[in-house]
Amino acid sequence: MMERTPNLDCDPIETKEWLKALSSVLRVEGGARAEFLMQQLINMARQKGLALADALVTPYINSISVNAEPAFPGNEALEARIAAIIRWNAVMMVLRAGKISPELGGHIATYASAATLYEVGFNHFFRAASDAHGGDLLYIQGHSSPGIYARAFLEGRLSHTQLAHFRQEIGGQGISSYPHPWLMPNFWQFPTVSMGLGPMQAIYQARFLKYLQNRNLLHTQNRKVWVFCGDGEMDEPESLGALSIAAREKLDNLIFVINCNLQRLDGPVRGNGKIIQELEGIFRGFGWNVIKVIWGRTWDALLAKDQLGLLQRVMMETVDGEYQNCRARDGAYVREHFFGKFPELRAMVADLSDEDIWRLERGGHDAKKVYAAYKLAVEHIGQPTVILAKTIKGYGMGSAGEGQNITHQQKKMTHEQLLLFRDRFKLAISDEEIENLSFHHPGKESPEIAYLQEKRRNLGGYLPARRIRCEQTVTIPALEAFTKLLQDSGAREISTTMVFVEILRQLLKDKILGYRIVPIVPDESRTFGMEGLFRQIGIYSPVGQRYKPVDADQLMYYREDSKGQLLEEGINEGGAFCSWMAAATSYSTNNFSTVPFYIYYAMFGYQRIGDFIWAAGDMQARGFILGATAGRTTLAGEGLQHQDGHNLLFFSVVPNCVAYDPCFSYELAVIIQNGLFRMIQNQENVFYYLTLMNENYKHPPMPQGSELGIVKGMYLLKKSSALNRRHVQLLGSGTILNEVIAAAEMLEKDYAVTADIWSVTSFSELRKEALAIERDNLLHPTKRAKQSYVARCLSDRSGPVVAVSDYIRLNADQIRGFFKQRYIVLGTDGFGRSDTREQLRRFFEVNRFYIVIASLYALQAEGMVETEEVERAFASYAIDREKPNPFTV
Q1: pTM for the structure as a whole
Q2: Would you call 801 helix, strand, or coil by DSSP?
């Protein structure tokens, strides 16, 4: 028995008077006045030194009182039948897939717990895109996909064959395991199964809708972003990592629905605590509107009887691990271990049978309670809302795993368990159909289907649904718009970072494209020379600028504006990239193409947000990602963790990412113009990663006819005028191309070795094309073999090939084997170092001297150069062959 707390009220009459006064204010003057008076009392108490507990957590009951609940507008009995059919078909999908092969898997328990949360939304709240409404955006919890498919089956959007081929996509008839827009481009809006990514993406998606509204680009004020996630998912840092921006920017278009079934994948989320209370404190502390839906209506009468507050006390003091116990057992257990803690509570339920007690529902399974929460959420103004809905994991699965630790991995149910499932939800399914694991459809003319279709018609159509193309075609500027950058820079030395800033300025002035540009930086605008944009286009802030900036008297002062175009996200790569994702998919979510340019410190790129980048590929994002201060030796002085020699490779392995490492201004101009054409005008589902360097040097004019080669990945920058037997092919990319050019001059002057110089803008694009050709030849052995672009470039050229970049050797090594010549690669494997560029390039063995030696070594191996000449080069360049290997630890 729980020990009873003694009555500490020394003056109950006075207490009653205070409570009576509060009740009177509520009745006569309303909640706003009562709230004001309470806050005044709290303020005075604190001023007088009273240590009041922070009111971030409210009692463990529903936030909406019974009296405040709106009437339920639908046919609850009919909706319950529809939900039961969907539950059944969701289970059948998983069981049938498991029968084909246990490898296929699937999840039953997540949707089982969340079905009511989704169904209330689909029937009453989720608006599809139409002429009258831009459409709500749904971030659906990944593991609940079977239920979403099962609903689409009843709607007529998915066929019996597709459901029967759940997780069997390769034959062309199946549907994907989780929400994957790439695999189901007309259906899923967002990839969410990598837990934690959905919540953060959704916050910046909601903010982007406000951005479009404030800039007068689109009317988005009546659209909502709905985010469904699990309580266990909230442990992912990304799930809670951006809550402050949602509250700070008053994103009242954002609604989180957290399915609090108290269980993560392998056990309770907070067995020794209370996850709903914990999340309430976190969200409320960040400034969110919090609505708790803990208890179903079957508890209302009991709570009304709880005059002493003992039931609320037990509700509060019972930890989640014990709540799980209560659900995993039976009504008798609940009577003894929950209500049995006080004699008064035991007496309260004396007239209830064990079965009655067992049927006391949690709030997340009560459509009326969920409807009330959703209605309050969509009507709330000035704050984002989180709904904490308490449910049971595996609800309806009974002994197959309801509320048990094994529930998440449960993929099987016995015939007897299915019989109980059918009877529990009153499904009109025969024993034979159960034996055959048959899907159930009540018929197109049935009341259930007619009701379901009517509800979706009233809300504008079906969801989830995805727009593949933007209806409006946007014409992008011709390459001639960047004429200045295609010419010789003369005496001016400039970095490719500054070249990009000039391109960006030019694009922002374009009358067709300019207002669609979305520049995004984490917190490095001045580092990248972009501070001029502060005044030109302004930094977006929903409230404008309420202060006079400290640099107001300067030409390039820090200017915030509600119509600002630049998204300056602070020291926050994840948030900045989520803004990029929102802008990069605006063509689909908003039927309005925008062009995001996200520039950041390259080293803090892919390796920090790699999961988001793969999600962007899945979402078919279109935009530019620019890794500034890229290259292992380009960024001098920064050292071990700041020098990037690998992120270029990381990006290149994402299938629809086009990665480039340009050296000269005209290369960058050609690549960006081509990217704009492919992504914006031609609406191809690719996105671009470009390296940018901060090293200043002169830029030559664009060689005639080099455009195609720049885009395909390499072109002949300089052909040797005096070809002889001692000849090499030198390949370079990024700023290291300048070292290659210098090495070619040294080879000819000091060793009578001639060289062709190739600028390689993308080793990865060369590799992709070569692999495609190789595969085609393999599959068509009777046809004349095709030749890859890189082979065509080099096959008629004499001499070995030496390739060098400011990245690890794997970068240039990508094209090995696609041409016949001997191939030597130099690169910057290993940790970074702090020093000058000259010293770094010597340390990593990628400077002009090492390129000369590599060339001579390759020619020596082919009998074109004597060993003595190679030794003379080592001596001439004072190369220490005994120095530590930079590539090893």
Answers
A1: 0.93
A2: strand
